[in-house]
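Quick one:
INPUT:
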């Protein structure tokens, strides 16, 4: 038990120092700010039709707890996953494999660490709820029990499920990479949304408890519901919501048993991967590198290729057989006469074009034939759908390459060549070429909707298309350069894309949300300007790292 706790605490300390932790934590604080908006504000997180509760401790605690459960189910997952692959990459796992720590004990430590990371964020969210209640001023009477209880009963079980799910994804080879991030988003978010209208097993997010309690309070106060639906999510109302008094969530024994059952289920699920987790044994795990064959060279021969033997003769070792090969001897005069670096024959042509072409080849190197088949299917669909559905086709076309875009700004780190490229004296040409490769990818995948806009003479659609084609790779490049990894862009872009799908015009970056045929979102010039700002930010980050490397 002491080893398990020490493992969890050490892992917790390491992960709370990462940029992703700070980003998701700041986003959670911002979400709490939206969950308890200004009394005259129209953006809400939780409401029943046109009603919301008075900002008492009970209501503020419940709304921030539910918003936190929804956010940590998605954003928190991206923070806590990746701990096991990181141990494998840093060889820490190989050291742990030499200890008596079992596979079950290792997974239990990681599960506890995941839970500690998410719980620390939830604690910050609870403190933010206190500040917001006092700041909004509708009720300055603080009731710590009413405010904290929703976090314990509603949010904590969701954190446990999220922590266990991260272990499943980390120990399953096909889910360890970026594809797992996309799958979790499109599985967890619809499941959480569906749980708002049905009584999910073990309470789900817990929305049904809050909804039933609020419906009862509104009925007792004689308020006309008129089919008003309870919902949790970012919404914009035409008018500021009407308030009602909610006494708070009544926690019953049955509710506690359901939520405790959810936590126990998470604990069991966290240990199930022990059945296939190889505990960093190369013979049992596919994602481990195969052991290099031992050299069978005779004593006194060189192990590494080309090193001299004790007799002074260089020996070249075949890595496949371990046998010594003949190595051509170089005349002393040739060796002595060689001075300076070898000359590279210049290749005629446009240097910038070759650089962009090279970056595009690097960007597309992981695209399989199945990926191209999917892109072609989306393109054909974009040509066949009615004109009114072309913006929807563009949304589909520009979610398909998300894993490729996420490599922008982070590819050099992922491939382990960042140290080599840091020696390159020109930062701007390589960065701009990388950005241009992302723009070309945007244009290729969005070509079918652009053609439809041109045929329909939709100038606004063309302008919005251009803004989207520029801002997506700019965002990917900036977040990749900042985080030095693909995950931050994946979660940020998926969140913005999902908001656009749900008709939130303020985040529309490609002209998909329209009112009476007109663009409802930001003007395309604003999107294009934002793309320029993001590109400049990426250039600044890369330049500073180049200077202070």
């Amino acid at each position: 038990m002491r080893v398990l706790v020490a493992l969890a605490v050490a892992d917790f300390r390491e992960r709370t120092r990462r940029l992703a932790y700070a980003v998701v934590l700041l986003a959670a604080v911002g979400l709490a700010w939206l969950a308890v908006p200004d009394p005259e504000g129209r953006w809400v997180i939780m409401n029943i039709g046109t009603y919301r509760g008075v900002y008492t401790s009970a209501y503020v605690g419940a709304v921030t707890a539910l918003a936190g459960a929804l956010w940590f189910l998605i954003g928190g997952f991206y923070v806590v996953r990746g701990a096991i692959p990181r141990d494998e990459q840093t060889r820490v796992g190989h050291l742990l494999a030499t200890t008596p720590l079992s596979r079950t004990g290792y997974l239990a430590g990681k599960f506890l660490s995941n839970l500690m990371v998410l719980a620390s964020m939830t604690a910050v969210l609870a403190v933010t709820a206190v500040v917001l209640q006092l700041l909004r001023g509708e009720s300055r009477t603080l009731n710590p029990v009413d405010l904290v209880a929703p976090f314990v009963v509603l949010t904590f079980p969701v954190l446990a499920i999220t922590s266990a799910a991260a272990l499943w994804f980390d120990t399953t080879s096909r889910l360890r990479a970026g594809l797992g991030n996309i799958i979790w988003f499109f599985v967890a978010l619809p499941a959480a949304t569906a749980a708002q209208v049905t009584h999910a097993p073990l309470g789900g997010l817990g929305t049904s408890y809050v909804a039933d309690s609020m419906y009862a309070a509104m009925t007792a106060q004689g308020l006309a519901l008129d089919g008003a639906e309870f919902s949790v999510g970012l919404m914009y109302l035409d008018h500021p919501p009407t308030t009602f008094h909610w006494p708070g969530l009544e926690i019953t024994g049955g509710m506690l048993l359901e939520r405790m059952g959810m936590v126990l289920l998470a604990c069991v699920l966290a240990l199930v991967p022990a059945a296939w987790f190889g505990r960093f044994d190369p013979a049992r795990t596919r994602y481990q590198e195969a052991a290099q064959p031992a050299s069978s060279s005779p004593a006194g021969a060189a192990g590494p290729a080309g090193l001299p033997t004790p007799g002074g003769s260089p020996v070249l070792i075949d890595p496949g057989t371990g046998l010594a090969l003949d190595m051509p001897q170089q005349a002393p005069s040739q060796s002595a006469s060689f001075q300076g670096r070898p000359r590279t024959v210049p290749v005629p042509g446009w240097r910038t074009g070759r650089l962009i072409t090279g970056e595009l080849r690097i960007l597309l190197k992981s695209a399989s034939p199945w990926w191209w088949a999917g892109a072609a299917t989306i393109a054909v669909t974009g040509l066949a759908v009615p004109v009114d559905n072309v913006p929807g086709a563009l949304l589909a076309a520009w979610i398909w390459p998300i894993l490729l875009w996420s490599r922008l700004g982070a590819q050099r780190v992922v491939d382990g060549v960042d140290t080599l490229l840091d020696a390159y004296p020109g930062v701007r040409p390589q960065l701009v070429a990388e950005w241009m490769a992302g723009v070309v990818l945007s244009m290729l995948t969005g070509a079918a909707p652009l053609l439809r806009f041109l045929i329909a003479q939709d100038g606004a659609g063309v302008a919005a298309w251009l803004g989207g084609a520029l801002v997506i790779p700019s965002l990917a490049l900036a977040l990749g350069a900042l985080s030095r990894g693909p995950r931050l862009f994946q979660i940020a872009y998926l969140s913005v894309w999902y908001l656009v799908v749900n008709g939130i015009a303020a985040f529309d970056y490609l002209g998909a949300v329209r009112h009476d045929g007109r663009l409802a979102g930001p003007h395309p010039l604003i999107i294009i300007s934002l793309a320029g700002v993001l590109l400049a930010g990426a250039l600044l980050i890369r330049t500073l790292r180049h200077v202070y490397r």
